[in-house]
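Recap from last week: sequence in, structure out.
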Amino acid sequence: MTSQDQPALSPPADTSLANRYGSQKRRLSGAAKRAIGIAALAAAVGFMAWVSTSSATSGVTFKDIGYSIPDATQAEVDFQVTREPGTAVKCAVKALDSKFAIVGWKVVDIPPGEPDGTADDGRTVSQRVVLRTESLSVSGLVDSCWVPAAGT
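Predicted C-alpha cells:
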C-alpha cells in the first residue's frame, strides 16, 4: 500500500511576515494630515514674519559714501548712518590694504540727534572719519553700526 504524501500545513503568509518584519504600519488619517499641514504652514508664516521684522527693528543702517587715501599713514572714510532721532550709535570703520588685511580701525561715537524739519526728520547723519593706518590702504569702509547698551 502506498500512501500519498500529505502536504505540510504552512501558516498563512501574513502571520509569518508579521513575525519577521513586524505588523503593518498604521496610516495617518485625513484629519491628522490636515492638522500637520496647517501647523507647518503656521510655522512658515511665523518664521517669515520674524525674519521680515527682525532686521527692521534694529533701527540702525549705514551706507558707505566714499573714501580717500591722502598718504600711507591715513585714510578718510565718508558714510551715512540712519537711526531714530535721539539714539546714540557706534560704528566700526576700517581701512584695508591690497590683500584685504585691516591696516586701520576705529570705533566712532555718533551722538543722538534731534528731530528737525528735514525730509527724514533728522534720522540720517553724514560722517567723515580719519583713520590712522599702519601701511598704505586701498579702501575704507564701515564694518558695522549698532546702538550701544545702556551705560556704555
